[in-house]
Amino acid sequence: MEVEIFGQLKNQDFHMAKLAVETLCREHPEAIKPEVHALTDTDWAEFLEKRKKELQGEVWGFKANVITFVDGNLIGDGDQFLVWAKEKFGMVDFRPPPFYEALANQSYAEYLSNPDKEIVYLDIAHDKKPLGRMIFELFKSLAPATVENFVSFLTSRLEHKTFKDSVLHRVIKNGWVQGGDFITSSGAQSVAFNGDTFPDESFAVDHSRRGTIGMANDGPHTNGSQFYITFTPAQWMNKKYVAFGYIIEGMKVLDEIEQVETYNERPKRPLSIYGCGRLIDLVEQ
After folding, report:
1. Rounded distance between C-alpha atoms, residue 201 and residue 42, angstroms
2. Nearest to 11 by CA among 46, 52, 63, 49
3. CA dist 109 → 135, 153, 225 (Å)
4. Which residues lie below 8 Å from residue 205, measured CB to CB, with a gap of 6+?
5. Contact at 8 Å (CB) between 155 and 262?
6. Which of 39, 94, 252, 255 has the fewest C-beta atoms lying within 10 Å of its C-beta?
7. Three-state DSSP class for 177?
8. H/E/C letters for each residue in 204-251?
């Protein structure tokens, strides 16, 4: 039988279900064909919304952080999967919740420290009141120079050469939020970390989802420091702007940014980045 486990990577209930299906595979290798999917917060929300449309009322009110299927049939959350495993195979799990909490924390730390990934964060405030943190995965294998330029501004603490304490100067509802002009705070300046501008590196990352992050420009090959984060899928931006990552956590913060009051596309009250950097640097502290 085919067993599918979908859940949030840093959630302990997901790891409980994951370990249960791995145990079943070891004890009943011919009976179980597992598929385990560890998802970021954003991917989980998108997955659940898609399944709600496919299964309609079956998962409409689903609130858990893990969902399980056997041969395409919904079993339920992690606890319901353990009940199923006990009824079918007599499996009983005696591990305490702190074990799975530690497992979830370890898995999340390993995800952040993966050398093939670049995970960064932006801490946002509106009128000096914190809204929260947005976390992005940047695709340095697809756009290495673009990602390096962006990360340099995140980690730098040089005056007029850092995103920290800079503003998000433009908000277009159903469009995007834009920032990165730490010189004039108006959108008039955009200079690369090493000076001047740099060419469009790659259009391999598309604008197929909300929370795409990319380089704002003033025409082809004019990338500097300014960047945008989309509020909606924006396929029209493909081949015109270099996207280099997606939001993986903090969609509610992006929702709040989209709703701020503006005048001529500028926030009426300051919308600022009060903290930023590589997430792994926080984990290692």
Report:
1. 26
2. 63
3. 14, 24, 29
4. 139, 142, 143, 212, 214, 242, 243, 244, 245, 246
5. no
6. 94
7. strand
8. CECCCCCCEEEECCCCCCCECCCEEEECCCCHHHCCCCCEEEEEEECH
